[in-house]
Amino acid sequence: MDYLDVPVIDFSNAYSEKINERFKLAEEIGNVVTNIGFLVLSNHGVNLDVVKKAQQQVSAFFSLPTDKKKEFSPKSKSYYRGYFGMETGNLGATLGDKEALPDLREYFTLNRELGPACDDYYKTGLAQEIFIPNIWPDNTLPEFKIALLEYYREMEALAERIMRMFALSLGVDEFWFSSKIDKHMTNLVAANYPEQKNSYSPSQIRAGSHTDYGSLTILKAENKPGLQVKNKLGEWKDVPIVDNSFIVNLGDLMSYWTGGKWVSNIHRVINPKTKDSNSDRQSIVFFHQPNFDAVIETIPGLEKSSKYPTTTAYEHLMSKINKMNKTSKFNEIGE
C-alpha cells in the first residue's frame, strides 16, 4: 500500500505477548515508513498525566518574559542546553539550502540527567563533552525539572518499544537495536512558535524544510496546524494531530541502517494563516539518538547504497547541528 497521507496506527499490539500480533504491527509500521516515514501512534501506553504536566510546565516557561528566559541560556556556543531564542537555528540549512532563513521559533533543550554514580561510559573522552549537565529554571519554575524528566523517561520507554517493532519489521531479532541505544544521547526539545506580530520575509517560516538527524522522533504537539510532510508525489501534506496520540517520524539514521529502504522524510512547520492571538504553537519533541559511538551501517541482509556510507551517531548529528547553528543570533551566544 502506498501511503500519501500520514496514517494513524494503533500501537497496542506492541505490548502483546503474542509474537504474531507484534509481527503484524511491525509489518504495518514498516510499510508506512517505507512510503512516507511519518505515522501517528494511538494506544501508545504513555501515562497521559505525565504528558499533561509536561505541557503545562512548557507553557509556563514560554510565558515568561524574554529577559527571564534568557537567564537560562547557555554561556557558551558549545554548551547545547537550556534556552535558545528566536531565529537562533536554521533547519533549512541542514539540507544545504543556502537561501534558507532562520526559524521563527524559540526552544529549550535538555538531555539525559546523569548522577555522579553513573556508568563509566559517560565519564571518558568524548562522552564528557556530550553528557554535560542540564540547565534548569529551578527557582523560577520548581516543577519544571520534575515534569520534564518524567516525560523524558516515558519517551525513552516508548522509543525503545518502537525500535523493537522496527527490528521485527526489518527481519532481525526484536532486540537488535538494544545495544545501540541503551546509552543514547537523546535531546528533548520544547519548542515555541509565538504569535507572529512582526512582519517577516514570505520565505521565512517557523521551521524550515529538513529531515531529523537520529533514529526516530516522537512529537507531542498542541492541536494546531502547521506541521507538514512531503509525500512521494512531492505534495505537502498536513500531519494530523489526534487527541491522546503522538506523531512519530524516522530520522536519517534509519535510512542509513536500511540502505535507503526506509524514508527519513522532509518536513517543515509553516506559518499560521492568520495573526490572531491563538496562532502561537508549542510542541515537545524527543529526538531519539543512539549511543554516540554506535556504528551506523546497513543492516546485514539489506541492500547497501553508496548514498548511506558507514558513520557514527555522533558524527552524523554534529554534521547537521553545525549547519543548523550557523546564524547570527546563535553567534551572539558566549564564547
Account of the protein in words:
Its EC number is 1.13.12.19, 1.14.20.7. It is an enzyme of class 1 (oxidoreductase). The structure is a single chain. This protein is of the alpha+beta class and 335 residues long. It has one domain (8-331): B-lactam Antibiotic, Isopenicillin N Synthase, Chain (Jelly Rolls), CATH 2.60.120. It is built from nine helices and 14 strands. The strands form three sheets. An eight-stranded mixed sheet has the order 1-2-10-7-12-5-4-3. Strands 6-11-8-9 form a four-stranded antiparallel sheet, with no helix packed on it. A two-stranded antiparallel sheet has the order 13-14. Strand 1 (8-10), helix 1 (19-35) and strand 2 (38-42) form a beta-alpha-beta unit. Helix 2 crosses helix 5 (144-169). The radius of gyration is 19 Å and the shape is globular.
- Tell how many strands the DSSP assignment holds: 14
Query: Which structural class should the secondary elements be placed in?
Result: alpha+beta
If helices are DSSP runs of H or I spanning 4 or more residues, what is the number of helices?
9
Principal-axis shape? globular
Helical amount: 25-40%
Global Rg: 19 Å
The CATH superfamily bears the name: B-lactam Antibiotic, Isopenicillin N Synthase, Chain
Strand content: 15-25%
Largest sheet: 8 strands, mixed
| Poorly predicted residue ranges | none
Give the tally of structural domains: 1
Topology order in helix (H) and strand (E) letters: EHEHHEEHHHEEEEEEHEEEEHH
The CATH topology annotation reads as: Jelly Rolls
Strand order of the largest sheet: 1-2-10-7-12-5-4-3
